[in-house]
From TrEMBL:
<feature type="disulfide bond">
    <location>
        <begin position="191"/>
        <end position="200"/>
    </location>
</feature>
<feature type="disulfide bond">
    <location>
        <begin position="161"/>
        <end position="224"/>
    </location>
</feature>
<dbReference type="Pfam" id="PF00314">
    <property type="entry name" value="Thaumatin"/>
</dbReference>
<feature type="disulfide bond">
    <location>
        <begin position="95"/>
        <end position="102"/>
    </location>
</feature>
<feature type="signal peptide">
    <location>
        <begin position="1"/>
        <end position="22"/>
    </location>
</feature>
<feature type="disulfide bond">
    <location>
        <begin position="79"/>
        <end position="90"/>
    </location>
</feature>
<feature type="disulfide bond">
    <location>
        <begin position="156"/>
        <end position="241"/>
    </location>
</feature>
<keyword id="KW-1015">Disulfide bond</keyword>
<dbReference type="InterPro" id="IPR001938">
    <property type="entry name" value="Thaumatin"/>
</dbReference>
<protein>
    <recommendedName>
        <fullName>Thaumatin-like protein 1b</fullName>
    </recommendedName>
</protein>
<feature type="disulfide bond">
    <location>
        <begin position="31"/>
        <end position="251"/>
    </location>
</feature>
<feature type="disulfide bond">
    <location>
        <begin position="169"/>
        <end position="187"/>
    </location>
</feature>
<dbReference type="InterPro" id="IPR037176">
    <property type="entry name" value="Osmotin/thaumatin-like_sf"/>
</dbReference>
<keyword id="KW-0732">Signal</keyword>
<feature type="disulfide bond">
    <location>
        <begin position="201"/>
        <end position="211"/>
    </location>
</feature>
Length: 305
């Protein structure tokens, strides 16, 4: 099937699923280990065809997203399924559903979050990568094909946190297991670690004027300047675009430069197939990428900060 036929086929699938053309999220795992993405739709927004799945190293999943959707995506790590009870749990990012599908449950902190509000104010998409609930895995968001040079339709900036922070995480915030020792598998936020108003921006500290960056939020901000580091970090951490699809990558190239990316360096699927999911799971779209296409992603991410 040729590229134009693939594009038409994908569009027809999206129309059949949602009745209108929609945004697509392409979720890529470049980690050396399996990641189990979780997805949570915001209140009042349409559900997605999946709320959780496994993603092996180098594997990609394309997900159709309905218009005006809001919600978040995160990566679960170190997941296992009990051979006797069938209960599914993850050491980090667990959603508490006891299954691969999160089914309306969010991530247990600490977890790196990709957050979206599509077709919001002014018809713009708003998106960010947040470490407000802590960190467990490197992640980036790359808009594909949206915006324009003037920025009228949003600046369509690449954002994320590409740095591995579990190792250098401050001792007071570090999450470790018996198998990792002092190495760490996640890094808590100060709010999660201490639960006090000055770190949680609550009570007397519930406004931007009274809740300021702490030494702990600055640890995240210095490592990942474009990621949300605490509750009132909007000015340097929320980005806009319009008419875009989004590439969400776990463990991206460690040296990206987070700069404007509109139509250049777009990762395009070489072949698209629609397949029925396993029993009790939602149908999903899957994509196979060529080595050359993955090289384009590497080139694009090298332009991040």
């Amino acid at each position: 099937m040729g590229h134009s036929q693939n594009s038409l086929f994908l569009s027809l699938i999206l129309v059949l699923v949602y009745g209108v053309s929609s945004t697509t999220f392409t979720v890529v795992n470049q980690c050396s280990y399996t990641v189990w993405p979780g997805l949570l739709s915001g209140a009042g927004t349409a559900p997605l065809p999946t709320t959780g799945f496994s993603l092996n190293p180098t594997e990609t999943r394309v997900i159709p997203i309905p218009a005006a959707w809001s919600g978040r995506i995160w990566g679960r790590t170190l997941c296992t399924q009990d051979a006797t009870t069938g209960k599914f749990t993850c050491v980090t990012g667990d959603c508490g559903s006891s299954a691969v599908e999160c089914s309306g449950s969010g991530a247990t902190p600490p977890a790196t979050l990709a957050e979206f509000t599509l077709n919001g104010a002014g018809g713009l998409d708003f998106y960010d990568v947040s470490l407000v609930d802590g960190y467990n895995i490197p992640m980036t968001i790359v808009p594909q094909g949206g915006g324009d040079a003037s920025g009228v339709a949003g600046n369509c900036t690449i954002t994320g946190c590409v740095t591995e922070l579990n190792g250098p995480c401050p001792a007071q915030l570090k999450v470790a297991t018996t198998t990792t020792g002092t190495g760490g598998v996640a890094c808590k936020s100060a709010c999660e670690a201490f639960g006090t108003p000055e770190y949680c921006c609550s009570g007397a500290f519930g406004t931007p004027d009274t809740c300021k960056p702490s030494e702990y939020s600055l640890f995240f901000k210095n490592a990942c300047p474009r990621a949300y580091s605490y509750a009132y970090d909007d000015g340097t951490s929320t980005f806009t675009c319009a008419g875009a699809d989004y590439l969400i990558t776990f463990c991206p190239n460690p040296n990206p430069s987070v700069k404007s990316a509109t139509k250049g360096g777009v990762l395009e699927p070489e072949a698209v197939s629609y397949s029925a999911a396993p029993p009790n799971a939602s149908p999903t779209l899957s994509t196979v990428f060529s080595v050359g296409v993955l090289a384009v992603t590497f080139w694009a991410l090298q332009r991040v900060w």
